[in-house]
Structures are given as C-alpha cells and as structure tokens.
Amino acid sequence: MQVNDSELHAQGASTFTDDIPTPQGTLHAFPVVSTVAHGRILNIKLDAATAYPGVVRILSARDIPGINNIGNIEAEEVLLAEQAVMYQGQPIALVIAETETIARQAAALVEIGYQELPAVFDARTAHAQGLHIMPPRIFSLGDTDKAWQDCDYIVEGSAGSGAQEHVYLETQTALAYPLENNGLKLFSATQSPGLVQRACARVLNCPMHRVEVDVLRLGGGFGGKEEQATLWAALAALGAVKTKKPVKIKLNRDEDMRLTGKRHPYDADFKIGLDQCGKILAYQVEFFQNAGALADLSPAILERTLFHTSNSYYIPNVRATANSCRTHLPPNTAFRGFGGPQAMFILESAIFKAAQAMHLDPAVIQQKNLLKDGDYFPYGMTAQQCMAESSWQALQSRYLIQDRQHAIDAYNARHPLSKKALALMPICFGISFTATFLNQADALVHIYTDGSVSVSMGAVEMGQGVKEKIRKIAALTFAIDEARVKVESTNTTRIANMSPTAASVGADLNGAATLLACTQILQNLKTLAAKLLADDAKPEHITLKQEKVYLNGEATDIEWGKLISQAYLSRTPLSAHAHYASPGLFFDRSREQGKPFAYHVYGCASVEVTVDCLRGIYSIDRVSIVHDAGKSLAPMIDRGQIEGGVVQGLGWMTMEEIIYDQQGRLKTDNLTRYKIPDFYFAPEIEIEFLADEESPAVMQSKAVGEPPFMYGIGAYFALIKAIQAFNPNWQADFCAPMTPEKVLSALYEKNESPFN
Amino acid sequence: MACRFVLNNASIEEHVPADALLLDIIRRNRGMTGTKEACREGDCGACQILSGELINNRIRYQAVNACLVPAGAITGRHVVSIEGLNSEQLSPIQRALVDNGAIQCGFCTPGLVIALTGFFLNSRLSDENAALDSVAGNLCRCTGYAGIKRAVSALCRQFDLSASPLERRIEDLIAWQILPAYFSTAPGMLRHVHEITYAFHSPHPSPLQQERELVVEVIPCAFLSQYQVGKASEPLEHAILIGGGTDLFVQKPEQLHSQALYFLSNESLYPLIRKAQSDLIINALTTIEQIRTSELLQAFFPRLAEDFKLICSAPIRQRATLAGNLVNASPIADLAVFFLALAAQLTLVSGSETRIVSLQNFFQGYKKIDLKPGERLLEISFEIPGKADRFNYEKVSKRTHLDIASVNSAMLIQEQAGKINKVHLSAGGVAPVPLYLAKTCAYLRGQTVCLATVKTAAEIAQTEIAPISDIRGSAQYKRLLLRQLLYAHFAELFPGVFEGGTFNAG
Q1: Which residues 477-496 in chain B show a CB within 8 A of chain A?
Q2: Chain A residue closest to B150 (CA)?
C-alpha cells in the first residue's frame, strides 16, 4: 500500500535528485562563469585547469553538437557564452572532473580575458538607454485622457519593489547518464521536464525521444526551477554525451544564489484620479521591469503584470504601459505570482497616496472600488462569480475588523514609543497560463490486475501537494481507497510535451486530464459490471462506492478486486490516456483583448503589525484571511499553501533584500546575508474559506498556489501606517522591502517630536 | 584520522581528514540521504543530527548542524541521523508533523524531526515556547511555519515532560515510541568505542594519527582537564584550537584543511561558571547555551535567557563557545559587546604562564587581537554586579532573531543619590572592533539621569564611532541606530526618563 509523500519526508525516506545513488564512475561538473557583468570574451586559457589532476574534460561553446540555445521564449539564450557575456555568473565553460571539489578548484584556474563593456543594473537607466527585451506593451480600458477632467483628486507618484531570492531549500541539481543507442537519461530538479527535454535535444542535436527526463520531486521550486533548472540539466547532459559517463552537477547555496535569477524588481510611475467620494475614475501606470540580461520568462511575467494592473478593483479608465528593461544582472525569472504581485503593490501605493491626499483611510477607497460581476478587466474579460465584495465583507464580519482598528487606536494613544497598524489587502488573481497553448495536459492511468492504480501526469511535485490531489481525484473517481493509488514520477517518456508546473494550474490541468482518463476506464468497468450483473442492466445503473459495485443503488457482491480481475479476463482496457485543454481560452495580442483566464481567485486579508519606534524593528502580529478556494479537494494542503504563500509575501515586503555591488555581483549570497522569515517572524495566520461550489476548477477545487502570496503586500502598508502614527511628517516612498533600516530612518526623518 | 563513533545503531570507523564534515560523512560516505544539505553554514537546520556524549554512563544528546561538525569532534560520540529515529510506525513527532500540515516539499522535515526529538530529550517541561525555540534554527520556505507550530503545540499537549525526570528520559521516550528501542543499548556501544579509541592514551594526549603531515589531536573528555591546566610541551604554536567551529567552518574551511587542529571540549570541566569572591569567572570553552541557561548568571542578568535567544539558534548555541566568539574578533560579536559593558578581564595562558588583559584592550584592530602564538584564552572574569547596578543588552538586525546585528550595545549603570556613579557602555558594528565607549562613559559619570543627559551622551557617542556602510546597513543608519539603542538602554533601565519626561509629548 502506498503511503503519502509526507510520511516519507518525515522519515527522511523521500528521494530528491541529490539523493539518487550515483552510478560508479560518475563525474562531476562545475561551470566557469563570467566575472564581469558585460563584456566581450577575448581569450580563454584552459592550460592550468586542464592539467589539474582529476580533470577529465573542459567543454566550451564549440563543443556543443547542436544549437547553443536553451531559451524558451527568445533565441538569445546560450548554454555557454561564446563571444559576449551579459552578466556576472554567466557560464562560459564547463569543467568535468572526478570529484566536485576538483571541478570547483579547476574551474577557478580557468583564465578568461575580457574587454569590459558598460553595464547597467537598474531598470530606469536601461529604459533611458533604450535597452529592452521587447517592445513595450499597453493595456487600456476606457479613455484615461478624457477621464482626468472628471476627477476631484489626481495624485501622481512612483513606487517600486525589490528582487526576491527563491531559497528553495534544494539547490539546482541535475544528473545525466548516457544510455545505449545515443540515448540520455536525465534526473533534473526542474519544474519543466518538457522544456529540459526540448532544450537538451536542441543542444545535443538529437531527436527529443532520445532524451528521457525524470523528476520524482523537488525540494521547493516557487518558480525558480521553471526556466532556470534547464541550464544545469543541459550542462550535465552535454557533459554526459561528451564524456560518455554519468555527469552530475549540483550548486552550493552561494553559487545557486549568485548564478540564478530572482523575482523581478519593478519600478513604476503612476497617476490616479478619483471623485470626491473615493471612486477611482482613472489610473495610468508605466512599469519598468528589471528583466536582467536575457529574456528568460520576462515577457510572460510582464504580461501577467499587465493582467493584474487593477487587481480586484474596477477602474473604468486604465492605461498601463509595461517595459521590460534589459540590465546586466542574472536573468530574473518566475517567482510565485509571476509579475502579479508587483502590479498590485504599485496600485496599492497609488491608493494609499490618494487616500492621504484626501485624508481618508485607504480602506475606504479600497472598498468603494471592489469589482462586481460583469465589470470589465482592462483586457476585455468580465468578472464572473466575482467574490471581491463578498470576501471583503466576510473578512470584516468574521474578524470584527472595526473592533480591531479601535483597539489599535487605543493602544497607540497609550504607547508613545510603540505603534500598531492594520492594513487590508484584497486580491484577484487570474488562473491559467497566459500563453493559451500551455493550458493543456495529459494523464496516463493504469489499473493492474491486483487492483492497484498507477497515475502518470505532467505536474511536478514540489511541496504543493499536486500528487496528493491527483491521488484523491483518481481514488474518488474509482471510489477506492487512496492507498491503492500511486502517482508516478513526472517523466517525459510517459507524458509528452508537458507544460511547466507553474501558474498555479498544475492540479487544475493535470487533475482534469487524470479525471478524464479515470472516467474512460470507469465507463468500461461499468459496462462490464452491468453485463456481469443482469441481462437488462445498463452502465448508467451502475455506481461504485467504497470499493464495491452497486446496481440501482443496491450493493452487489462485486468488489473492486473482483471487478478488475473480471475486466482483465474479459479483455476490458484497464489503461487510458487522456488529454485535457482548458476550454474557451483565447487572447489576441494585437488588440490585447480576450479571455486569458479560466477563472479568477479572490480573497481579502488583514495584516496587523507593531513597530518598536525606539529601535525601528517591528513584528507582523497577525494575518487574517478570507480566501476563495472553491470546494477544496484537500483543505489541509490548501491551508498550507495559503500560510506558506503569505509568509513568503511578508518576507518580500520586509526583510528579504537583494543587494548587488557596483559591478553587478551579488552581495547577499548566502543565508547569513540574505534573511528569509524564520519561526519567530512568522505571524499568527487565521484562514476562513469562502464557500463557492460553482467554480469551474477541477472538481470545483480552485487553484491556490500563487494568490495568497499577495496578501503579504498588506504588511508594507500596515508598516507605513504605524510609522506615520509616530511620525506624521514622514511621507512614504513606496519602495519595498521595508527593512528595519528604512523603518528607523522613516521614524526619525523630519520628526519634530522630542523623541528625535 | 580514524574517526570512530556510533552512527545510529552501529559502531563505525571512518578514515577521513579531521576537518571532514559530518554531513559529508553521513551523506556521501555512508549513503544515508535523509540528512539534507541546503546551506552548509548552519543557517537552515536541514542537516541537523543528534550528537550524544557519554557522561556518567548516560548519553546526553544535542541537536546540532552536521555541516559544522568536523570529524575530529565526533570521535566517541553517538550520532543519530533521521534514519536512526525511524521505526516500523512513524514516531509521535513524525506523526504530528504529518497530521498538522507541517510538511510540504519535505526538505526541511528530517531536520525538524531531529530538532524536536532533541527538545524531548532535554526539556524538563512540555513548554511550547521552549519547543518552538528548539526549532527556531530550522528554516522552512514552504509552510510559513504555521503547520509546524500546530504540530509542536499538539506534541506539547500530548506528552507531559514534567512527569519524566531527565535521568529516566531516554527510557520514557522509548516507551512513548519517540525513540527506537536500541537507544537503551547506545551507552554500551559508546563505552566500547571509547575503550578502543582511548585505550592507549597516557595522561599526555598524543596524536592519534598523522595524516597529510598534519598533527590531528582529539582530546578526549577524560584528559581534557589536564590539558586545560596547560602542558608546556604541547605543540600549540601552529595549531588551530577549535571550540564549536561554528564560525571557523563557515569562514575558513580551506585554511583548516592545511593546519593542525585541536578539538576542545568542555565536558569534564567543572564548574564552567563559578563565583570567586566578588567576581564571576566563566571558562572560555563554555557554550553560549551554557551561559544562557546558567542559573548563576541568570540571577544577575534576569533577561539573559531571552537576550541570548536573539544571538543564534539552539543548535549553534549548543556548540559555539565564548572563546570562539571573542577570538574571532568580529566587530559585531554579541558576547564581546555583552562582556565589554561588564568591564571584563581575560585570562590568557601559554604553557604554564598566564597573563590578564582587559577585554577592552584585547581588541586591537579589525580582526586583530592581543593573543600571542601558542597562547589561548582560558577564562573571562568580571565583577559581580551589585544590587544598585542595572544592566541592559540591545541588538538590532534585519531579521530580529538569528541574524548578525546591524548594531548591538550593552550598558551597565549605577545611580546613587540621583547621580550616575558607575557606567560601562559598549557597542558593536560601529567601529573596526567591538567598542567600549570610553568618552561617553566619562561624560555620564557624575551626571543626573535625565533626558538632557541621555541626549548629550548620545551626541558624544557619535564622536567615538566610525561605522561603515555594508550589507548590515549604511553608516548613517548605524549612527542613528546606536543613538536609539542608547536611548533604549535608558528607556529600559530608567522608564521614568522616557515616560514621565517630555518624551511623552510625542
């Protein structure tokens, strides 16, 4: 019987890529990387490294048999830099040696001569210099130019949020070994086995069927292994093919942090117009995305930023311009929320600034502008089964927000050197890949003669519980014990052309495909059961409950085991493959209009903080949430996704600060210098699920991976409210993260109180 | 060196360099992959194991990070990895984590199981806060810690540790199925390992084995006290003395590879912390946790236990020593700042010679200390604070807990008849060394405690410091922060100054 992953984890018995026993003779690879942010490669001196004892081979771009390209979106993404380097940490050569240590030591001996070129590290400078990944994109609704004249208040400003390191606890790892007939098997810690397979085939100049990629599970991904696991897998693959030996590559934490991209920092200029009641009439925003050196997923992330320009608010006149700016930093990449959080932070900043100008609480403006059914998003889609207002109301009544606010006011009056504040954060997040073609998935289901079930599908397990959900779907469909169902590793020979496990849709798409495959087999089983039970029985009279066949609601003596052996003996198919494509999706990029999302997820959070005004430190005291999860298939998993997402979002807004030096080298390159939330930081989190049984999600259970991250944004605004309670003269600069350093400066900047 | 220890339920011998890390021995040499590697610097807890020392026929276990434990420090110990806690059924700790949604990707989970097992082995009470502190050194990027807190809370309700005296704890944990039954045979296995390892030891410890021309010395507990008083013949000049290794193995692993290493342990030193007339004396090998939990010290520093939780996580506190923190000479060293404000003195020994140097003068420049070749730190002493003395310690870092300070500071002050008649003030992160703020102290002596005095003192402090901008904060921030911490000292020690004075007007 199959136990779930959690039990294996608790015993340390689950296998991650680095835990796979390596075959004897496995070699270890380590890249030689650029030490300049931008430059031309003049020469590469390998002598010392080649002569180093234990070095087997050093590979460079000219050893690549196929095309030197691993990009998903753009052609510019090379596996090994040949003429130019675009960021510090870009791989130029690959040292393959007998041990990890030798590979690292030898890599340090490779001398590379550069002609350095000017480098740019921030988005606005890149934009001013015309450095872009792609032309700007513009989403609009109504007519902002005309709307300004109707506004009683117009507020302009700028805002920005910082980069964020994924800190998946399992670092980037790949193990490749050559098979007969020029085949290759790759164990890669990737969210995108299909992409790894395609990129490796392209690099190796072989058909895709020669490359088998297998992923058992990841030790966290969060987007950081969607696109950026490919590089390491392709390097291992190249090494294995060139040496004809198994090759492993595994990054240490500091290497992983320096060599891979992060959440995109964004800057933005905004202009918001409101009537005197606080109704937003117009919103104009220009985003400057710091894409890093190469396209990676930046264009798709930029697009999702645009899709979330107005978050869960209806704004009749919107004009959003988005620029993807090329800088000389490691390519920034997918991270939970995928550009959505950045957009929402900017709009909340605009609302906050407007509220200050109007002497209102921001919550007044937030509430007045919540989406309603039928309201338009700035991309042509209308809100349906909209839960923006209901989640806001439920939050107010469930947690008595008014009372809490009064208690905070009373506390602040009593405590001159300690201030509390509460901020509300509504969210609306679109569910589907915005590249419509990715919204497809396959599942392969087998029932073996002993009644045990094997499910293969295209989603990668990385802690989000997708395997557990798939298992539930199969078990529920067949009405059998979950212990009979095993969800297999994610493997490209069983599932072809799979989409990345991303965009919160892993369970939606692959669950739907699993449901289809199980249903196919179930239909055959019902036909068989009907035949076995009575001459006039029809499949529609048959049901399965608790491992037993029922005829017209009456239990029969056919149990699951018997049914399956009868099916086998009567040559009834016990395997099925199914394909699912989300219906009704389309998007016309020439008009920036369409229906890109299957549905939206709504919710609302209250974030409470306390600022120690003497020391500039703070605590996040409590996050209270009302969340729309549909009819949750696995409430414990969904709760965990919300809790984990919130705390990541809080980290992004508070202590997680990425710092590069003047040469584009990462200074915050280990967990001593880059701090993520710990036990003590994590707040109390209360969650209430909104009942919504009409959801178009698989088995009515809505996607949950990304949306809760954005509740964390409330922390920034709660902090600045608390600071202003101490120092009313301080004007927020809407620049996240709000580190203790920034808080202390804010508390005492232009502070005229005797405390200063 | 030949490293002999008990790993789970088997005695093993590994031939490895003395600086080989336990994490690599377990994962690579032994192929036991339940112990995870995620940071290799003691920041995440994914590689935690239990390390057990045989003391009076019982084994005392501590959860430590295997990435910071060198082979030289595990000889003769019982090392328990996650595999060594597994039985047929999940243990109640494993079960609680599974049932409370404390597990997502699973990479941090084995470390959590170890940390919680360590808590059950050592805590007198089922105190939820103490249980949470025991896992505070375990980073989890998936769960937001909520599920883990639920599991910890459930476990504390499920088991009442107050009913299980520490002398009987292992037997009880076996009965509760938190530990597998073989734990009862572990002391016997360890004794056997000790017999093999130390059989030929004379009172003078001699090198166990020479490898790559390095002298590798493991000093077993039985001989340490003799070593401790100092033997002139010992070749200490070129050796690196390793206490906990929690800094050394993060900062200079390659340097350790080519030098003689002496692994020190304090297990047979008693008492580590003692009173001598009007002084308190702390042995340099005392761990941060031993200082934190010392009842003798807590009597004089009631906030000690809480203050030191800020410094580092439980598994680091178990290994990091006072000597290591001082000798490493970081300008931000938490213990240096603490003891500077106690005007502490250091006793240094070299062979049979000893000399005394004030902690203030010990720090001579950035990472430069007054310690001669062959000399080592024996103990630290300071005058016991009197009833009229008030003491406060402050630390601010980007993450409140378990982070390196941006600025830290401590102050000891005595007010008599309305005047300050004694004051010591220190600060870290504002100069190349942990700084004693001499000018500020000189000003404060004789002043009345009032707002004006505090503000003037803060201004004088600004003239004594020279912070630099780095990832812990800009120079400007550190200046402001030091002022605020100075205010904080007075706010904590003389609440009236802030609450009754004009400060209330804000």
Answers
A1: 477, 480-481, 484-485, 487-488, 491
A2: A684
A149-164 average pLDDT score: 98
Sheet with A39-45, side-by-side order of all strands: A84-85, A39-45, A111-116
Query: Quick one: which of A242, A245, A250, A179 has its CA closest to A205?
Result: A242
Alpha helices in A206-339 (DSSP H): 230-243, 253-259, 298-307
How do residues A320-367 score in pLDDT, each as one tens digit? 999 999 999 999 999 999 999 999 999 999 999 999 999 999 999 999
CATH number for the domain harbouring residue B117: 3.10.20.30
Per-residue b or e along A651-683, where b marks 16 or more CB atoms closer than 10 Å to that residue's CB: bbbbbbbbebeeebbbebbbbbbbbbbbbbbbb
Maximal CA-CA distance, chain B: 74
Q: Do A12 and B86 touch (CB under 8 A)?
A: yes
The phi and psi torsions of A84 (rounded to 5 degrees) equal: -125, 150
Q: Which of residues 143-172 of A touch B (CB under 8 A)?
A: 166-171
CATH number of the domain that residue B461 is part of? 3.30.390.50
Is A706 known to be catalytic?
Answer: yes
Instruction: Encode A701-740: b = buried (16+ Cβ within 10 Å), e = exposed.
Output: bbbbbbbbbbbbbbbbbbbbbbbbbbbeebebebebbbbb
Q: What is the mean pLDDT of residues A674-679?
A: 97
Does domain A440-581 fall into CATH 3.30.365.10? yes
Say if CB A333 and CB A195 are below 8 A apart.
Answer: no
- As for how many domains chain B has, the answer is 2
The CATH classification number of A266-433+592-748 equals 3.30.365.10
- Whole-angstrom Cα distance, residue A711 to residue A714? 6
SS3 A194: helix
pLDDT tens, position by position, B468-506: 999 999 999 999 999 999 999 999 999 888 765 444 333
Strands B273-276 and B279-283: antiparallel
3-state secondary structure of B136: coil
Q: Which residues of A touch B148 (CB under 8 A)?
A: 679
Q: Shortest CA distance to B322 belongs to which of B379, B255, B367, B389?
A: B379
Residues A679/B102, Cβ–Cβ less than 8 Å = no
Task: Sort out which chain B residues have CB atoms less than 8 A from A18's CB and list them.
Answer: 33, 37
User: Has residue B160 been placed in a domain?
Assistant: yes
Which of residues A255 and A692 earns the better pLDDT score?
A255
Distance CA B388, CA B410 (A): 17
d(CA A148, CA A299): 30
DSSP A2: P
Does the domain spanning A25-118+166-259 belong to CATH 3.30.365.10? yes
A191 dihedral zone (left: phi>0; alpha: psi -120 to 50; beta): alpha
**What is the torsional sign of CA A740, A742, A744, A746?**
negative
Only one residue has tokens 């390892």, namely: B197
Domain that holds residue B421: 389-505
Name the burial class of residue A591, with classes exposed (0-12), middle (13-18) and buried (19+) by CB atoms within 10 angstroms of its CB. exposed
| Structure-token pair, residue B2 | 């030949």
Kindly list the domain boundaries of chain A, sorted by start residue: 25-118+166-259, 266-433+592-748, 440-581
Question: Of B1, B2, B3, B25, which Cα lies nearest the Cα of B75?
Answer: B3
pLDDT band at B373 (very low <50, low <70, confident <90, very high): confident
Dmax (CA) for chain A in angstroms is 94
Nearest to A321 by CA among A153, A127, A602: A127
CA angle A257, A263, A268 (to 5 degrees): 140
With the C-alpha atoms ordered B121, B125, B126, B128, is the resulting torsion angle positive or negative?
negative
Q: Which two tokens stand for residue B227?
A: 């070593």
Predicted confidence at residue A268, as pLDDT, reads 98
